[in-house]
Amino acid sequence: MPHFLDHHDIRSRARAAFIGLAVGDALGAPVEFMTAGEIRSKHGVLREIVGGGWLRLKPGQVTDDTEMSLCVARAIVAAGGWSLRGIADEFAGWLRTKPVDVGDTCRRGIRNFMLKGILETPFNQWDAGNGAAMRMLPAALYTLGDDDLLQCCALEQARITHNHPLSDAACITLGRLVHLALQGASRNRLRREADLLAADHPAFTFTPYRGLATGYVVDTVQTVFHHFFRGRSFEECLVGTVNQGGDADTTGAICGMVAGAFYGMEGIPQRWLKRMERRTMTEIADLSARLIALSPALRE
């Protein structure tokens, strides 16, 4: 069993998880769609939040990974509980702002909600992307202390845009990893949870690591697990992950959320925090505190 932390520690780790997600997004976005070799020739090892890339981002600017997570968080906090329609409405409002980046599957699902009111996209064998997994964190914070509730919320938020067994499984496992890390579980305990996913869905097996970091949810999760379980610090986990290239903003964001929950605020390098957009960081700190306050673990 994990060593249970007091409420202050859990709140601090919840903040670190959400900030870690944004930091990973901002670190990885400038090298999205590059190969590991292209990153090496341009940056050596990318260790700084530099901006640029195909989206021409400002240093510290976040993308759809963080923005969609903020949508989920705002909807839960505004409702004072779970609101699937509220989340879909937030996604629709976000899409209307013409965001800097949005995945095709996410766009299609949100458009279906806007045009037809559909809250669960039909199963599609091609929708095993990482767009639902990347925005899992608010659901994980809100459901801390209740695994059944986690599973329900994970799948509901996912299926607005992604309805695929591999996406579903990844969302639930990432939520469970965050729960374990928030409660002070060991790396070995988290590894057992990752291995359970691979046992149930052998596609996710990440040893030996194949080095693929595409937007396919299996490649994404394998990359995150490989570098999270090899890394010995928040920075090491994140640097390893984003330097694989591919869908580096999303692998960075997902690794950042798990590593943030595991290593806590003191683990996140100050030099990275200083590069982040102030307004985003302030909102994340506020929302993470409100989400965790709504969770069964802190309401008891």
TrEMBL record:
Its cofactor is Mg(2+). One of its GO terms (molecular function) is metal ion binding. Mg(2+) binds at T63, D64, D65, D247, D249, T250. It comes from the Bacteria. Keywords: Hydrolase, Magnesium, Metal-binding. Pfam families: ADP_ribosyl_GH. Binds 2 magnesium ions per subunit. This is ADP-ribosyl-[dinitrogen reductase] hydrolase. It comes from Geobacter hydrogenophilus. The gene is draG.
